[in-house]
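Regression test attached.
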Amino acid sequence: MPFLASLPILVILLLMVGLRWGTARAGAAGYLTALAVAVAAFGAGAEVLAYAHVKALLLTMDVLFIIWAAFLLYRVADEAGAIEIIGKALPALTRDHGMQAILIGWVFASFLQGAGGFGVPVAVTAPLLVGLGFSPLTAVVIPSIGHGWAVTFGSLGSSFQALMSASGLDSRALAPGAALFLGLSAILTGPMIAFAADGWSGVRRLLIPALVIGAVMGTIQYVVAALAGLWNVGAFLGGAAGLLVGVLLAGSSGAAGRGWGRIAEEALQKRGSIQRLLLALSAYFILVALTAAILLVEPIRDRLGEIAVVQMEFPETITALGYVSAAGASRPIRIFTHAGAILGYSSLTAFLVYRAAGLYRNGAGGRILSGTLKSVTSSSLSIAEMVAMALIMQQSGMTEALARGLAQAVGGAFPLIAPWIGAIGAFMTGSNTNSNVIFAALQMRTAELLALSAPLILAGQTAGAALASVAAPTKVVVGASTAGMAGKEGDVLRALMGYTVALVLFVSLLTWLALTLWGG
Amino acid sequence: MLREKSTRHGFAFVLIVLASALLYPAAGGGYTAVVWALLGMIAAANLLSLATR
């Protein structure tokens, strides 16, 4: 049964990595495989499949809301020439290609993950890197690897919230392990970014700044999430601290080759350029300001959050093999405080700012909307297919059979395997949150049966899921399409696979080590 | 109409969304035949997106 349950994932992997199919085609094949296996081997009937598809629709819309709005914001900025201006201005801070990759593809992408969420870091930074002369493939790979460490405590903590809800454990139990594993992963990510940007020479040249920035981001996230208890802003503040340190290092290190004095002198001479850069960046300042105002200011968040809430009740379903999915309500989708809505407000505000500044030519609004629609069509279909596949697997018992088969096969080596289960869930669904929802209860129960520390196993689950979520086809397709790699998602996936496997393996070893030292 | 890939993908997406939305009342009302018909539409939409051209 575990092998049959793994077939949809194997089909997608084979078609995307082996045959280089695009996500829409591979996703359709994965969906049809899941449907056939669920009906023929797992006894899924009409009711099971029907509610799986409705749940998938809700999840798809939840995800697509952000993606559509992220594309819109990008188009608003791009139509105004902002992306080009930022791309031309950044070399003023550092001419080192590797340092540019670190600043934009790692630190800025992590900051965006802290403030935004699904797909935004890659969708925003990959085009910037292309503008700086990176190949489209490298431009997608760098921010994809770069923001993985920030996923669990990013998006204002939505994945961590899912982990707490699904396990019933509180943040005091769960945050220390998760923040530790992800903080150490952040430190390892820096040299990987330098390598992806500039090979081994990049690693040798930028090892110290990369380690310093990684240590700062990981430590701040740990202090904020695990010690201060503010888990919802852990990655946001970690990324902000990384930006501050990264900009200082870029300006003062030999990598910059110029120094702050020279930059300040040039800035005074080119005041107009600085003003143009600030105006170009205003879309992103607006995004950060609105995100902070809406999600961190309680009265605003509560008032807006009550206006329109989408939530559905689902009855219990049971397959012919007896697998039960409990009755319950879906996760509420609060339309006006949704990350997609915040991106939408930001897009509208930025559009008005750019228009008032005279940066648009006639017909800009129409071009922005048609460009957005054209970009998101294939991505939307791919995500609908992948999410439906994942929900069919979940509702029919395929996901559980797969996870149990993996856990039973490894027995006492479960600590090493737990992060991989989380990683598989995130790869399938494109989401750390979904992986936590699907696997947290199973991971916790297995840990209890094996007399292991459940919080540490769950830390491995969410860290593995966070780091693997960046290579999920649903995320790859977003990044690929913003960097002009649409239809070449298989190439991106192949390039990402080595880094992702290394990072999840690192978390596996950390989980095993932590359990050996502290947890049974 | 469906020769263009983007048009085909758009059509498949809309079909999946509409059929999935209709599954909730169909399953809730116990209309099994309607549920299978809607699931067939979703499978057909996926088959459509398998087309290469």
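Expected vs. actual: identical. Residues 126 and 518 of chain A are 40 Å apart (CA to CA).
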